[in-house]
Each structure stands twice: as structure tokens, then as C-alpha cells.
Amino acid sequence: MRTFLKKTAFFSLIVLAYFTITGIYNYNIDPYGILEKRKEFPGIRPNEHSLKVHHILQNTDKFNSFLFSNSKGGALHFNQLNNESDRWYNMTYSLGTPEEFYTDMLLFVKNDVEVKNIVVGLDEGAIYERASSHINQASRKFVPMEEDKIHWEYLFLPISFKKISGVDENKKHIVHDIYEDGNYYAKNAYEDNCDDKEEFVLLPRPVEEVEKQLDFSSQIETLQKIQNLCRKNKINLTFLIHPTSQDNLKKSTEKLVQFEQLLISLKKNGFDLFEPFGNSLFENNSCYWLDRHHYSKKIGDSILQLYVDLSETEKGELTNR
Amino acid sequence: MIFNSFEFAIFLVLVFGLYWFVFNKNLKQQNLFLLCSSYIFYGWWDYRFLSLIILSTIVDYFVGIAVQKSKKNNQRKLLLWASITFNIGILGFFKYYNFFVDSLLTSFAQFGYEMQSSWSLNIILPVGISFYTFQTMSYTIDVYRKNLRPTTDFISFAAFVSFFPQLVAGPIERASNLLPQILGKRKFDYQQGMQGLRLILWGLVKKVVIADVLALKVDDIFENYTDFGGGVLWLGAIYFAIQIYCDFSGYSDMAIGISKLFGIELKSNFKFPYFSRNIGEFWRRWHISLSTWFRDYLYIPLGGSKGPKLKSIRNVFIVFLVSGLWHGANWTFIVWGGIHALLFVPSYVVGNNRKYTCAIVAERSWFPTLKEVVQMASTFFIVVLAWVFFRSENIGLAIDYLTLMFTKINFPPIYKNGLYSVGSLLFLDWIFRKDERLTFSFLNGINKRIIYITEAVIIAVVAYLISINTSSGQFIYFQF
After folding, report:
1. Average pLDDT, stretch B181-197?
2. Are B231 and B410 in contact (CB under 8 A)?
3. Is B216 in Cβ contact with A136 (below 8 Å)?
4. Radius of gyration of chain B (CA)
5. pLDDT at res. A105
6. Residue A321 CA neighbour count, 13 Å, CB half
7. How far apart (Å, rounded) are the C-alpha atoms in residues B231 and B418?
8. Is the pLDDT of residue B417 over 80?
9. Range A211-233 average pLDDT
């Protein structure tokens, strides 16, 4: 028994040491922001989903207009459209899905957040990204952040050296704002040699054959739920279709072809979609793209302009059909 | 309390300490302590259902003694049937009542008699009810058959029925194995204790690192199966095969390991079933305690393989169908059992169902022969297909899923990592197929200090792997 206890104690000490180290690390660094030790996120991506929802629920009167999207919407700074009646907040987060957006909207309505406008950004992730796969992802799963609850699982998550602030020099310039406007700020979104007034170079999208169309019933159902919720609560709703790059089409042809089919199905089902650049592609250009998926603020700003140009009547039509 | 929870870790340390250091002087006290600990463990879910275990214990304790005392055959038979009726009665009521009512109403509706389902009740299924009722029934049947003398030590008998490591998800222990160990003095054994710890660790990895991670993928694929191509659906079915194996055998490993810490040996419940060469071998390696229970207490009483072939085949079907129903109150489980019966019968008819009764495949070599590879692959293939019924919510969905598996030929390259993970898991299982997880024989002959360091590294890696998974789930077999 003695030898057994000695050996067990030795192994327990290893386990204890391991969890002590991860506990201290996570408590101090708080890479996901869930332990509420970290308020600023330069070069580190927190669990934006939980933090943003939590922030809105804590400040129910601060904002009344919301952009829901995956990270592509990060450079859409809707707060530039703020006026006396509209106060925008950017709810975007990495790989967000319409299913999650709907759940968050329900939570807003349930908690008396006054909502006037909602924009839901869509891309191929609406088909291929699943809310269920986020349950196990510390950076994406929704964590209800009640004040009296300790999130042990975040305390004992494995140490991620990449997450330690400042280690990843390439991303140090990126700032995920949570407590002001929810936007994503990246230094390379403002390339010095990019002319803001220069016309966009748009390319026609080649026609791709569809081998077998997927079944979109679950996606359509989710979007219908969003539509019904907005109708019921008199919220102006716009489904924004994110533009895509030539490079992205080349590398994810199958996904984009299926997304195109989803859009066709949505239109057939009576959805009105806001497609700022129609079916055109943006060429690969550092003034347009931060990377293959994320467009720059230059494109973001022009989308905002087109959104403003939509007359109130058109917005209403997009919403209430 | 589930094994992969923080409260269980505290519970285990406390019970272990008190069991060996406070109550070890007196066997009666030690058994009473074991009983109380088991009741606390079970009552943690819902203390109200403790009454069912206690009732089942009392009934079978007294029936056992009465059967032994009784000299008249009719009286003995009556007592036996009283015990069976009671145990099947509570199992039937809590687990199958709504299923039978709903099935009855559905069949009436098919003949045009629409009836209100006001007979359905809002019944909670008590955790582990299928396991402990089967355990107590086997005790009474063994006493009736004079294979076992009933105990007059109520506390020990109650501790046997409710022994916490195997109470809620097996292995379903026979009184002939477990009761003598509870009635006899236990002595702590270092080797046994170390093996116990290794099994707990191994089971924890299977459950938390493999089964729980796969569960997310499986749920996604099965819930949205129409969104995917056939290749992904195949992957989903294979994932489920591995998930349920790791979930259930992981629990069994932990149960056996925890028992070892208390100086008690439980029977093995899984012996690398996915390396079986035919369905017969699969069932000798999968959920062994249940399949042997049905063999001894259902198949043999029905006549077994004696008598006309047709009658034997009927017996096989009954066993498999009842085994399917045991897993849950849903037609999908019955169909799953039926499919296994259909797969088993051909080899049964030609008489090679007992061909591979002993050693694991490639016992003495690293690699199987080509013939064995083909046999294992084909057995795995049909087992995977049958799992689709087990996992699906209803038969219609299962048929749809299977149809798409074969007709929607498509496998997006983004899922190729899934194939690698399946390959790695099967490879890992293959390495340990001679049950070397208990002995770590690869460490033999190495310097003791290096062994310590190796084991320490293994522990740290396991802690790391477990901490990666932030959402630990319930064990699938708790619902059965």
C-alpha cells in the first residue's frame, strides 16, 4: 500500500502541477476574455461571441442596431452610420453561423434589448459551418457569463503560446474591440498606397456547373426563423451577401457554387437579398483583401455606402416580404 | 456522479481512504461502508430511485433464501417467477411502458382506430435500471438452479447489488463472481492497484479524448445527414462505431479499474470487438457480460442449440431481438438486434459461429493474414451498417441515411483528416489488442527511473488531452 500511495502521490503531483501551471497561466493571461481579467485584445482573439452577447445584455440601451456575421463582417464598421436614432454594434465573430445568430437575437429580445435594425451577413459558411462544432471550441462556444459562476474549463485549458499577447508579432496590430463598437481593426486594412476613391476592379464570375445541389432546407428554415422573429418584433432586417475574391473562388469552387445555389433557393423562397456587388468577383489585390476571405475596410466602406443608398422603402421591402 | 467528473474524483479518494484505512479492520463494517458509498453515488442523480434498488435488493435477498429453504419444486418455481415478475415489472414500467402504449396506439391508428394517448405517462428512466435488475435476477436464477448458495448476509448482498463502480453501466456481474469477493476479506495488492489506475486512465482517455470529441461530429452528421455526401455519411457511421465503443468500453475499463482499487475483480466486458473475424466472434467480444447473460438465462432455457435447427434459429432471433430491446424502448434497437440475428444465422447454420472462440486475431504476430484482414473488414463493415439503426431516431431516418450512404457518392477532400483519425484509432487499438494496457509490457526490462519518467510523461499527456476537451458528456450506456 505504501509503494502504491507513494507512486499515486507522485503522479497526482504531476497532474496537480500541470493544472496549477495552466490555471495560473489562464487566470493571468485570460486569452479568451471569459475570466474577465482582460479587457483589451491586441493581437489576441478572444471568445468574441460570448463577450459581445454579454456586453449587449449588460447594456441593453447602448445599441439598437446590429450586424451579425462571421469574421468577414469585421471590417464593416456600421458605427460610421450612427445617428440620433441608430446606434450600431458589430456582433461579428470568427465562423459565426446563422443558427447562432438566431439564438443570440432571441436572447436579445428576451432580455429587452431594444432592436431597430439587423443586418445578417452571409457567405458559404452558412452552409459549411455548423454551430454544433463550436460547442467544443473555447474561442467560439457560447458561454453564459453569469457573475457568480467560475468557468473552470477556461481556467484549465491547455496553454497556447500563440495566444500569449505579443508573441505573434504578425497579429499584434489586430485589435478586437468588444466594449466600444464590436469592430475588428487591422493595420493592413488601411494600406498607404491604396486610393480610397479609385474605382473597384470587378471581374465577371465564370459560370460553374452544379454537380449535385445540396439540401438547403435547414439553412432556409433558420433564415426564415430570423425573418419571422424580426417581423414579429418590427425589426428592419437585411440579408447582406458578402463579396468574394477571385482567389477564394479558385480554391473553394465547390463551396461557392453550392452557396450560389443556396442564394437561388432563398430567392425562390421569397427572400430579398442585399448583394452589393451582384455576382461579380473582386480581383486579388491587397487594397481589397486582408487575406483570401476577409475584405478590407475599403470594400467594407463601399458596402456601407450602398447600404445607405438603399432607400428606407427598399430596406423595408427587404425586411417585410 | 459520473466517472469523468471532479466530484467523483473527490468521492473516490475519500471512499478509497476510508475503505482501506478506517473500515479495513472489520469486514462487516467495510461492506456496510461500501454499501453506503454506493447509495451516495447512486443517490447523487436522484435519491428517490434508491428506493427501487433497495426494493429489488430486499425482494431477491428473501426470495433467494426462500428458494433455498423450499423443498417443493412448484413453490421454488413460484418464488422464482415472483422475483422475475418483480424485476421485469419495474424495468418494464419505467423503461418500456410508454413505448408499448405508443406502439399499441400507432398500430390501432393504422387500422383506422384513432385513440387519444392519454395512457402515456411522464416517467423518468432511473439510471442503470437495466443493469441492476439483470444482476439481481441472475442471482435468484442461479440459486434456483442450485448453482449458488444464497447469502444470509443482507449487507453484503446489498453491497453486491449496488457495488458503485458497476452499478449504472455494468459490467453486469454474476453473483458467483462478485458475491464471494464481497463476502471474503480483501487485501490491498500493489500490482492490482496499479493495474486499476492504468485502466481508469485508459478508460478516461477513451471516453473524454475520443468518444466525447467524436460525439460532436457524429451528432452533427446524423442530425443534418441530408446536407452531406455519402462519403461523409460513411465517416459519420464509422465515427459512431468508434464513439460507442470508446464510450462504453471506456466506462467498463474505469469500472473494472476502480473495482481493482477496492481489491475486487470484475469480469471483462470488451475484448477488442472490432478485430472480430465474424459476427459470432463480435458478440463474444462486445458487451460480454450482457451477451453471456442472455446466453445463460434466455437462450439456454429456450432450448439453445439443442433440438431442431429451426427452433434453434428461432432462439437466436429471440435473444438478439430481446437484446436489442434491452438497449432502449425504440424500434430502432429492435431492428438493430434483428439485423445482428440475420447476420449471425448463416454462420450458425453452417456451424462456424464458434470458430474463433479463443485468441484475438494475430495473437502471435504483428500483422494479420490477408484472409483475416478481409474477414475483419467485412465484419466491421456490416457492424457499422447496423449501428446506423442504433444511432438513428427512427427507422425511416435510418433507412434514409443508409440509402444516401450508398447513392450519394461524394467525399469532399476536407474530410480526409477524418479518415486519418479513424486509421490512427484503429491502429492504436490494434497495438493494445493483447490487453497490454494493463501491464505496459513495453516498459519491461527498462531502468526503473526511466519507467517512472515515461509514466509521468504519459500522465501529463493524458492530463493535457483531457483538458483540451471542454465539454464532457454523459455516458451513452447510462440511458440503457
Report:
1. 91
2. yes
3. yes
4. 23
5. 96
6. 15
7. 11
8. no
9. 90
Nearest CB to B220: which of A8, A14, A132?
Answer: A132
> Which of B258, B328, B261 shows the shortest CA–CA distance to B478?
B328
- pLDDT score at A320: 44
* Best CA proximity match to A315, nearest among A226, A242, A236, A240: A236
The pLDDT value recorded for residue B434 is: 65
Contact A117, A63 (CB under 8 A): no
Asked if A153 reaches chain B (Cβ–Cβ under 8 Å), the answer is yes
Please state which CATH class domain A31-320 belongs to.
Answer: alpha beta
A127 vs B contacts (CB less than 8 Å)? 227
Q: How far apart are CA B218 and CA B223, in angstroms?
A: 8
In chain B, where are the structural domains located? Answer: 6-186, 191-277+356-479
Chain A residue numbers touching B22 (CB-CB < 8 A): none
* Stronger pLDDT, A185 or B186, i.e. the higher one: B186
- pLDDT, tens digit (0-9, with 9 covering 90-100), for B323-382: 999 888 889 999 999 999 999 988 888 877 777 777 777 777 778 888 888 989 999 999
B188 CB within 8 Å of a chain A CB? yes
Q: Which three cell numbers stand for residue A166?
A: 505579443
CA torsion angle for B373, B377, B380, B385 (degrees, to 10)? -170
pLDDT tens string B69-114? 998 889 999 999 999 999 999 888 888 777 777 777 777 777 777 6
Q: Does B153 touch chain A (CB under 8 A)?
A: no
A121: β partners: A240
Dmax (CA) of chain A: 81
- Greater confidence (A222 vs A151) lies with A222
SS3 content of chain B, % helix, strand, coil (to 5): 70, 0, 30
- Total count of residues recorded for chain A: 321
Q: State the number of CA atoms in the 13 A half-sphere of B267 facing the CB.
A: 20
Predicted structure pTM score: 0.77
C-alpha cell at B229: 455526401
pLDDT of residue A147: 67
Q: Chain A residues with CB inside 8 Å of B456's CB?
A: 10-11, 14
The pLDDT score that the predictor gives to residue A321 is 43
Distance (Å, whole) CA B358 – CA B371: 18
Nearest-angstrom CA–CA distance, B386 and B167: 28
Strands (E), chain A: 65-68, 88-90, 117-122, 175-176, 184-185, 202-203, 236-241, 244-245, 273-274, 281-282
Q: What is the pLDDT of residue A52?
A: 94
Which residues in A lie closer than 8 A to residue B460 (C-beta atoms)?
14-15, 18
Q: Which of A136-145, A196-205, A293-302, B312-321 has the highest mean pLDDT?
A: B312-321
Within an 8 Å CB–CB cutoff, is residue B226 touching chain A? yes
Instruction: Tell me the chain A residues in contact with residue B467 when contact means C-beta distances shorter than 8 Å.
Output: 19, 22, 156-158
Residues of B labelled as active-site residues: 327
* CB pair distance less than 8 Å for B216 and A156: no
Q: Which of A281-290, B36-45, B462-471 holds the top average pLDDT?
A: B36-45
Lowest mean pLDDT among A95-99, B54-58, B160-164, B207-211: B207-211
Report the interhelical angle of B27-46 vs B50-69 (nearest 10°).
Answer: 140
Counting one residue from chain A and one from chain B, the pairs whose CB atoms sit within 8 A come to: 72
pLDDT of residue B442 exceeding 70? no
Q: Which CA distances in Å does B106 have to A109, B98, B122, B392?
A: 40, 12, 18, 19
Q: What is the mean pLDDT of chain B?
A: 85
DSSP B137-198: HHHHHHHHTTSSPPP--HHHHHHHHH-GGGTTT-----HHHHHHHHHSPP---HHHHHHHHH
How far B13 CA sits from the closest chain A CA (Å)? 11
Contact with chain A for residue B435, Cβ under 8 A? no
Chain B interface includes A27 (CB < 8 A): no
